[in-house]
Write a structure and sequence with these properties.
Elements (H helix, E strand, L loop, with lengths): L1 H25 L4 E4 L2 E4 L2 E3 L6 E3 L3 E4 L2 E4 L6 E3 L6 E3 L3 E4 L2 E4 L6 E3 L6 E3 L3 E4 L2 E4 L6 E3 L6 E3 L3 E4 L2 E4 L4
Antiparallel strand pairs: 1-2, 3-4, 5-6, 7-8, 9-10, 11-12, 13-14, 15-16, 17-18
């Protein structure tokens, strides 16, 4: 008889343990009521004025605060209400796709996309070498060429200016 009582006690304890998440869930806070204003879970009352705002990392959807869904290779934006892609990735619908960087190019330092290396120019999603004619040199920016002193540009070549 003692064994049966022990078995019943163990079964009862196990059943209560298994049901505890259901009981706890039923008591979950959905909204807070402060001085007549209803503030949703993961929201807070505005410091000035009436109403509420969602907490950092949440966005307002249908009068509630829902966690911002951040895709792979993404991060929460500086406002905390949306997301941006990590460096080297760009938004494509609701995901971040890797930016295809062509040969002789590099990721742009301050924006999404890429730039050609010095001595190359962009053409049809590629970087092609800049053809520098005789008596010319690469411009300081590296994206074009100039004629040497005493020569002038004539189409794709440098021609002698003649005696001065």
């Amino acid at each position: 008889m003692r064994i049966e009582s022990l078995q019943r006690a163990v079964c009862w304890s196990l059943l209560m343990f298994m049901l505890s998440p259901v009981v706890a869930w039923s008591d979950t806070e959905i909204a807070r009521v402060d001085s007549g204003n209803v503030t949703p879970l993961h929201g807070h009352a505005r410091r000035h004025g009436e109403g509420w705002d969602c907490n950092w990392g949440y966005q307002e959807i249908a009068e509630s605060c829902v966690a911002v869904r951040i895709p792979g290779n993404g991060h929460l934006n500086s406002f905390g209400r949306g997301w941006d892609c990590d460096r080297g990735y760009q938004k494509a619908d609701e995901r971040c796709e890797q930016i295809a960087v062509p040969v002789n190019a590099f990721l742009a330092p301050s924006r999404q996309g890429w730039d050609c290396e010095r001595g190359y120019r962009s053409l049809d999603r590629a970087c092609v070498e800049i053809a520098i004619p005789e008596h010319a040199y690469l411009e300081p920016a590296g994206d074009g060429w100039r004629c040497e002193r005493g020569y002038r540009k004539d189409g794709r070549r440098c021609v002698n200016d003649g005696p001065r």
